[in-house]
Design brief:
Length: 366
């Protein structure tokens, strides 16, 4: 029986993906990140007091490279800001401005109100970009924001994406929507969605609530479903939970879709060790591709079966190297002008990288 391989293509600034991504490892995306974290608190600092939420804290990277994208995070029913506050410094330490917030009425603000609260919090971060003497003055990417929330806040984050299609990503933390008042159209949007849910959640159970969020989001929208083994309703309230895999997948989601950094997409393709159920339609096929610079193109077949073909339009012969996931050289050769067939019958179960012409072809066993 032949091995089946998914083909993933990434082109980055004329350099091979291996050169761009060699420093991106599981260790590099865990808690905390490389940046120092600054804090702005409502009532202490001069940040805006948004009318659609109650109380907020902004976490920001002090020594990163602006402009910074941002994310707003809100708690669930009868919850408070501290329930989800560990996400703030985590994201900021990895280069993303994060605003954590409370609700005007914790036990009466339903998901629709929390959606408006999230969007209002984004306005607050944007105003820091123009507020005189703010440490974020002139440093916020006002066109790059994501939303996240726990329980009713997770439902609110989905509704926020339906309201504002300019959002770049959604991360639902055991999300809840009222099944009696829920409309399928509430989930119709094209903002990439990551859904965390707990296998043992007795409030927003994974089948009725968590998977509903995943399944109800259009098939054309990039989405991922991570059911946490033995997890309860608070199983995704901190990046350190599930052995740190919650943080790894959430950060990889933001890096991929909010920051458009394709080196992180590969982490989304592996089934988490702490998951009881995992599903995604993410393929990493088009992330980070530069237009009109294709001198080397993938032809097929896909999935790969024994071989695949490359078209060399560079006008000259190109050398190539094939390496294993451990970086060891497995094969090298020359790609002639026109069509080239590469044999892969010898492949074992691992990832492979083929470098040629300033591009990287990543192949992963399926």
């Amino acid at each position: 029986m032949h091995q089946h391989i998914i083909f993933i293509f990434v082109f980055l600034f004329y350099l091979p993906l291996g050169a761009q991504c060699e420093e991106i490892t599981l260790e590099s995306i865990t808690n905390p990140g490389p940046y120092n974290v600054g804090i702005l608190e409502e009532g202490i600092d001069l940040i805006r007091n948004g009318p659609d939420y109650d109380g907020a804290t902004i976490y920001y990277p002090e020594n990163g490279t602006p402009p910074y994208a941002g994310i707003a995070i809100i708690p669930g029913y009868c919850g408070v800001e501290s329930d989800i506050q560990e996400w703030g410094p985590f994201y900021a330490s990895h280069g993303v401005v994060a605003i954590t917030l409370g609700t005007n009425d914790p036990c009466a603000d339903w998901p629709s109100a929390r959606a408006l609260a999230l969007l209002d919090a984004i306005v607050t971060v944007k105003e820091e970009n123009i507020r005189e003497n703010s440490p974020l003055q002139g440093k916020v990417d006002v066109n790059s924001f994501a939303v996240s929330g726990w329980s009713m806040g997770g439902g609110g984050s989905q509704l926020a994406a339906s309201i504002d299609p300019s959002l770049k990503a959604v991360i639902g933390l055991c999300p809840w929507l009222d099944l009696n008042g829920f409309q399928p159209s509430d989930l119709i949007h094209d903002v990439p969605v990551l859904i965390f849910t707990g296998q043992s959640d007795d409030i927003a159970n994974s089948a009725e609530y968590g998977y509903m969020h995943y399944q109800g989001t259009p098939s054309e929208t990039e989405k991922l479903y991570f059911e946490i083994s033995n997890g309860g309703h608070g199983a995704a309230n901190s990046p350190v939970l599930a052995g740190g895999e919650i943080g790894i997948y959430a950060l990889s989601w933001l890096k991929t879709y909010l920051l458009n950094e394709p080196c992180y997409c590969e982490f989304l393709l592996d089934t988490p060790s702490n998951s009881s159920s995992f599903e995604t339609n993410v393929e990493c096929l088009n992330i980070g591709i530069e237009e009109n610079k294709d001198v080397l193109r993938f032809i097929g077949p896909n999935p790969v079966d024994d071989y695949f073909e490359l078209l060399n339009d560079s006008g000259e012969e190109l050398g190539y190297t094939l390496c294993g996931s451990d970086g060891k050289l497995l094969k090298d050769g020359v790609l002639t002008m026109g069509y080239n067939k590469i044999n892969f019958r010898f492949l074992k179960s691992q990832s492979y990288f083929l470098f040629s012409g300033g591009k990287s072809f990543k192949l992963i066993n399926k």
